[in-house]
Structure formats: structure tokens, C-alpha cells
Amino acid sequence: MRFLKKIAIDLLLAFIVFLLINQLFFGEFIVRGRSMTPTIFPGERILVLRFPPPKIRRCDIVVFLYPRNPRRSFIKRVAGLPGEEIEISGGKLRVNGSSLERPCFRLQPWAKLKKKIPLGFFFVLGDNSEVSNDSRYGWLVPADYIEGKALAVFWPPSRIRWLR
Fold this sequence. Notes:
Blueprint: H1 2-24, E1 26-30, E2 45-49, E3 61-66, E4 69-80, E5 85-89, E6 92-95, E7 98-99, E8 113-116, E9 121-125, E10 141-142, E11 146-155, E12 161-162
Antiparallel strand pairs: 1-2, 2-11, 3-4, 3-11, 4-9, 5-6, 5-8, 6-7, 9-10, 11-12
């Protein structure tokens, strides 16, 4: 009986530690729309690094509070960093007047936009630009709205993979 009680206490402590780590360091995000296909598909569950706050770089996939309705969370790819000037034309993204060496964005050839990103904000794009509600529609993501950086797809098991 004593042995079973010790196992039950150990399992309970392990479960509590798991919950704390999960809530403090990692989070989960369920993809609802098609804005990130073909990288991420609706229904997939994403592991998100919350703490320590990750350094956000261009092409990172981030989960954030939607600036027009902060009760909703979105997932998109970072295209522009604070203080940069971005330009979209001819299906290409230019940053501070230069084309990207390794393009990670698929843009429609007719899309046109030029914008200076204020300090403290990020410009984000969905990988499926035909259906994505992203920063091309006039909103930017405040740095403090970023909930974390997407690391991997962990559900369904047949599609487990790291995200790039």
C-alpha cells in the first residue's frame, strides 16, 4: 500500500511539473484557417515557445493576438521587423530597398504595398496570400501581442514536424 501511495504522489508531482512547464514555457495553438497552407494545415496543433521570450527574426512563424480583436490569436510569418521599410511588388518582398537573399514568402504578382514599420511593431504575412488576413490589410502586430514562436506541429501524429 505504501508503495502505491508513493507512486501516486510521484505521478501527481510529475503531472504538476509538466503543467507548469507547459503553461510557462510552452503553449499550444490549434490552426483554424488556411492562411498558412501549405506550411501548416487547418486542424494541426502547434507547439509554441513562450518563455524565455524568443528573439523574433524575419521568416519566423509566430502566434500573436490579432490587433483588431485581441481575444483571437493568429499564426503568421514575420516579414518586416521594427524600424524597417518593406515594399511588396511583382510578387517579391523588398526590405529597406533590397530583395531578400532567401525568400520565404509566396506573394501574388499583383500585390503592391510600401510601408515603414514603426518601432515596437511587426509586419506579418500568411503563406497562402490568396486567403490570408495579414498586415497587407493595414494592421501591424505590437511586439507585446506576440504570444510565442511556433516550433513544431505535434498533432496529428502522422504529420509531426519542425517548422521553418
